[in-house]
Structure formats: C-alpha cells, structure tokens
Amino acid sequence: MRAMVLALLLCGLMMLPLAALAESPSIPAESKLIPMEELEFQLLQEFPAQASESGGDVGIMATGSWGAQTVGPTIYTTGYPYYGPVFSAPASTPSNAATRTIYWDWNVLNYRSDLKVWLCNVTWDACDEVSHSSIGGTNVFHGLSATHNYQFVFGIPGNGSAIYPYVYGQQNSIIVNWEN
C-alpha cells in the first residue's frame, strides 16, 4: 500500500512540470507536448507545394553542398601553367543541382607576389582568377551544374626561366553550394 501511495505521489510530482509548462505564458494554450514516439514525420517529397504570391506552385527547393581537398602542385619555372588535382563532386550530388556559390582556400609555401591562381570549371573550361585572395568565394559559376569538376591552376608570368626557391603547393579546398 505504501509503495502504491509513493508511486502515485511520484507520478503527480512528475506531471507538475508539464502542467506548469502548459500554463506558461510563453507557450500558447493550444500547444501540447507530444512524446517522441507519437511524432509523425513526413518525407520531403510528400510536403504539399507552396503557393507563390502570383498564385502558381513554387514547390520545394533543396539545397546542399559538397567539398573537397587536394594538395597543389610545385612550381619550378615561369611561363607555364601548373594544374592542381581535380575536385570531383560526390555521386550523391543530384544531377539537376545548380551551383550557387563556390568558396575556395588555396595555399602555397614560398609565396611570390607575381603568382597567379585561377579556379577553373574543368567541364566548361572556364576559369575565375582568384590570385587576389587565398580565401574567398565567387558566384561566377552560378547556375552551372553542381556535378561539374573544378581545379586550381597556378602560374608565374615569365619566359620559362627556373625559379628558386620553388613555390610548393599546399592544401587547397573548395566548397560548392548548390540548389535544385
């Protein structure tokens, strides 16, 4: 009997915080706490399309990103392009995903002020010069497929003469933000 009274008392004390929360002015009266096992989740594809201000269906837009790291090349001479390894999108990137913004980070040892660096879309053979900052972002590839490959290209203007000390490529990375 004593155990039953104690159990009822404990149950009443455990319910007290829930009742206090329900009466709290910060939570509307119609709100109620639902145990996690009773929650129902919907898959993203099952959400109804949203109506735009013009009355048409907008649908659901997915966003994501992928990133990759490589080590850059060593530069020995002027006048030649030095191609870094290719950054490839993972197979999980949706085929209809479009690039929004690309963030980059390139690094070298023995930096020279005449070093030129380009971030290139290998698939389209188009490049954006990013020499001005070793860390940054660009929208120049906006709208291109997020499954495209990219790489850094390094070079020092000149006539093919040897340089010393060499410019050693270090860790380089990109992050491709996409939407579909």
From TrEMBL:
<dbReference type="Pfam" id="PF06366">
    <property type="entry name" value="FlhE"/>
</dbReference>
<dbReference type="InterPro" id="IPR009420">
    <property type="entry name" value="FlhE"/>
</dbReference>
<keyword id="KW-0732">Signal</keyword>
<keyword id="KW-0966">Cell projection</keyword>
<protein>
    <submittedName>
        <fullName>Flagellar FlhE family protein</fullName>
    </submittedName>
</protein>
<keyword id="KW-0969">Cilium</keyword>
<feature type="signal peptide">
    <location>
        <begin position="1"/>
        <end position="22"/>
    </location>
</feature>
<keyword id="KW-0282">Flagellum</keyword>
